[in-house]
Amino acid sequence: MKPICDLLEERVLAAMAAVGGAGAPAVVRPTQDGRFGDYQANGVMGLAKKNKSNPRQLAEQIVEQLDVADMCEQPEIAGPGFINFRLKPEWLAGRLLEAVRDPQRLGVDAAENSPVTVVDFSSPNIAKQMHVGHLRSTIIGDVIARVLDFWYGEPSKVVRQNHVGDWGLQMGMINVGAVIQALKNLSGEKNVQEYGSWEKLRGCIPLSEMVFNINELEWQYKEVNIEIKSDPWVENACREATLNLQKGEPEETEFWKKACEVSLNACHEIYEQLGVKLGLDDVCGESFYNDRLPGVIEDFAKEGLLEESEGAQCVFLEGFKSKEGEPLPLIVQKSDGAFLYATTDLAAIRYRVGELKAERVIYVTDSRQKLHFEMVFAAAKKAGWVDDSVHLEHVPFGSVLGKDNRPFKTRSGETVKLKGLLDEATKRARKIVEEKNPELSEELKDEISQAVGIGAVKYADLSNNLVSDYVFDWDKMLAMEGNTAPYMQYAYARVQSIFRKGQIDIDELLGRHEQLELNEPEELQLAKLLLRYGEIVEAVAGDLRPHIMTGYLFELAQAFSSFYTNCPVLKADEAVRDYRLLLCLQTARTIKHGLGLLGIEVIEQM
Ligand code: ARG
What we know:
Number of strands: 13
CATH class of the largest domain: Mainly Alpha
Strand content: 5-15%
Largest sheet: 4 strands, antiparallel
Distance between the termini: 34 Å
Structural class: alpha/beta
Bound molecules: arginine
CATH topology of the largest domain: Isoleucyl-tRNA Synthetase, Domain 1
Helix content: 40-55%
Shape: globular
Radius of gyration: 29 Å
CATH superfamily of the largest domain: Isoleucyl-tRNA Synthetase, Domain 1
Strand order of the largest sheet: 1-2-4-3
């Protein structure tokens, strides 16, 4: 089914065209206030201004031409020329029944245009444990990929890309760090100074003697950073190790492979725990683009876009200025020949558009990378790799803060590791379950705590406006009241309990009815919201702002609540009971589906 908004839009456009306003936008939106009907067309004023005609008169002419009698009451004109639409209960009822009969897509058609879309998200760096800084990209990117997958329909047009930082100097650094650490472990030697070069150092420890778990790798990386400061040769060693890796020397390559494997496995444990759909085959890290970097420089050179500045190769792009008002270059190659983060991203765009045939590329990172992406996008366009048919979109987001409104840290001031954070979420949820429902089986308690704890962390993140920072607050996110995951999960479980209590066979219920009736205002309100689901999915797919979905689900749960308070379900007369059960059914399905797009699980009882 087409979203109601689109249906009305088509009709208004036709009426506008009939009065000589072809091509002008109709601007149909749901109304904020039910007193003005359900939808409103705001395009008349714009057309009147263009035609220099009286907007109210024009609105009257348009309404005369409007053919909406099947779905709406007589449209009303309000204010300077708004057209208000109120949907007919019979029409709503018929449509709802259609949606009810579509358990897979809930009456939401797949988009007419489904561009091949790359979603670049999570993208942590190798040899470090995932920490709270990776939470938002991972959660938000997962939601964007899920929503687009549903909206674009089968076959999937969404390509998930985990652009992990697995290349560059840090890879040499962990190699040096691992060797030094192994030496110390073996000989208790505190002083490694006497080795003096990577050449001497690297041969003396075989791979099998090095420790490769993620904690060790991270520790070794930190240590080597300290070592660099006291022993200047260590820095050179890191450079040499990196260079050897980039040249494909077997020893450094072996080490690198092992380190990547260990780190990625640790990341994927987190993805699993988080319930994020991102597989090992979605990993396409910086190293993948190594062979493609010289091509980037060649292309820029061919287009005459390279300029040398202080020995570095740069691209100057219109509109980018430093604080001092000087032209700001995008550096693509350093004076020592090394490539940069930006060069890799340029190679990635070229690959994604040129080889993956992406028509939309979405990058989910924090807002500090805004300028980076603006410049990289502009450079890719200037090089001619990307034309106007391709959309490059950066989805920037704010930081996670602690209760003190500063970046979220542990008490001792360290970055918060995701593993610990997620374990704590489940633990806290478990405590609530124990209090509320001590009689449940251990197994069920575990299941519920997992869904509620992880769901709470995700929902709290997603329900904020993306660009704002937000405060990480356990009590708030785990509250049973308010716009939280537990509240939504509870709303779902509550509807399910109606079906259990009434021992309702859903297939039978669905088979019993050729029609549906909506009479009470709460029934109508709930039906209207249920039928807006497609519009919401479309809005999230377009704007990439998940809080549109959380806001909608919250509104839906509240509408259900007032419906349930005012309209008895199981106690109602047979026909009415069935209509109301269908409303319950569609509410439960919509909550489950919507939460599913947010990567949040429902539970049958709480
Ligand atoms: N690894 C980067 C970081 O930790 C994020 C990469 C984002 N994706 C990209 N194509 N640059 O900041």
